[in-house]
Design brief:
The structure holds two protein chains of two kinds.
Chain A (H helix, E strand, L loop, with lengths): L1 H11 L2 H22 L3 H21 L3 H27 L15 H21 L14 H9 L3 H28 L1
Helix pairs in contact in A: 2-3, 3-4
Chain B lengths: L7 H21 L3 H25 L6 H31 L13
Helix pairs in contact in B: 1-2, 2-3
The chains are: A mainly alpha, B mainly alpha.
């Protein structure tokens, strides 16, 4: 009797809401830690944790493909890129951990970001969104593929060219200076 | 007991909070690497925004997710170019503090 009571109590709890608040607390606190810490290696670790929590938010929004892409590209590839470049830089720059993380315009930056958040939150509260909740189990990935290859095909090909040009340019920039030395 | 479901406004407030943290980092951090991290935070906030609109707005099928994927591509290109430029400047000048970057002033 008591067990069924406990089970019915558990069924009344909205787990989506609880998961949203837990993931939001971790996401916001790790994002604040990325900005506030002075040690750049700890900042990298907190940034990777922020990427993973963002993937959790995508899972809550039923966008599984975006969440998996986020974990593969952000938490996998971009994190490795950032960690390697931080290793290349902090090897010779001994003072990068000890220097003060903030420049002189701390007051101006906090005022500007606070005003931005105030404006956006007031706008969000005062706008009546035309919201309908789509009750789908999961997003059909073939819809994403069809969107890429029919409506947005030019942007898709341009994104491929952009990635190629960016990676070739990154390699070229670093290699050019090395040849001059 | 929590009965209120999470709607579009909560996701928008979350993403705008992450975006304003990114703005704070871009305006106040000293090293160029930290500024790049803050830009990544801002791009993540925009992606949360787009995916939330994709779920909650009626006439949208997967356009928000497609735009989020495009932003992920642009973010990957941006972080590669930004780190390459910062490594080159660090080789030339020996510093990464943004106030010392006055190459184009003289």
């Amino acid at each position: 009797m008591s067990l069924s009571l406990i089970l019915s109590y558990f069924e009344m709890i909205n787990w989506h809401t609880i998961a949203f608040y837990i993931i939001s607390i971790f996401l916001i606190s790790s994002a604040v830690y990325v900005v506030l810490t002075g040690n750049i290696v700890r900042s990298v670790i907190a940034l990777i944790f922020t990427f993973l929590m963002t993937a959790g938010i995508y899972f809550l929004l039923q966008a599984e493909f975006i969440a998996v892409v986020q974990m593969l590209i952000y938490a996998g590839a971009i994190s490795v890129l950032i960690v390697f470049s931080v290793m290349l830089i902090t090897d010779r720059d001994k003072n990068i951990n000890e220097t003060s993380p903030f420049s002189h315009n701390l007051f101006f930056g906090s005022i500007a970001s606070g005003l931005f958040y105030l404006a956006v939150s007031i706008t969000v509260h005062n706008t009546s969104w035309n919201v309908t909740l789509k009750n789908k189990e999961f997003t059909d990935i073939s819809l994403i593929a069809r969107g890429f290859l029919t409506e947005n095909v030019i942007a898709f090909e341009l994104a491929a060219v952009l990635l190629l040009v960016a990676l070739a340019a990154a390699i070229f920039i670093i290699k050019e200076v090395k040849d001059d030395n | 007991m929590i009965t209120n479901s999470i709607g579009l406004s909560q996701y928008l407030l979350l993403s705008s909070l992450i975006f304003s943290i990114g703005i704070f980092g871009v305006l106040t951090k000293k090293h160029i690497i930290s500024v790049l991290f803050s830009i990544e935070l801002m791009l993540n906030a925009v992606n949360i925004n787009l995916v939330a609109f994709n779920k909650f707005l009626p006439d949208v099928f997967v356009a928000g997710q497609i735009f989020a994927l495009f932003i992920i591509v642009v973010a990957a290109a941006e972080i590669a170019i930004g780190l390459a430029i910062s490594i080159v400047i660090f080789r030339g000048k020996g510093t990464l503090v943004l106030e010392d970057f006055n190459l184009l002033k003289h």
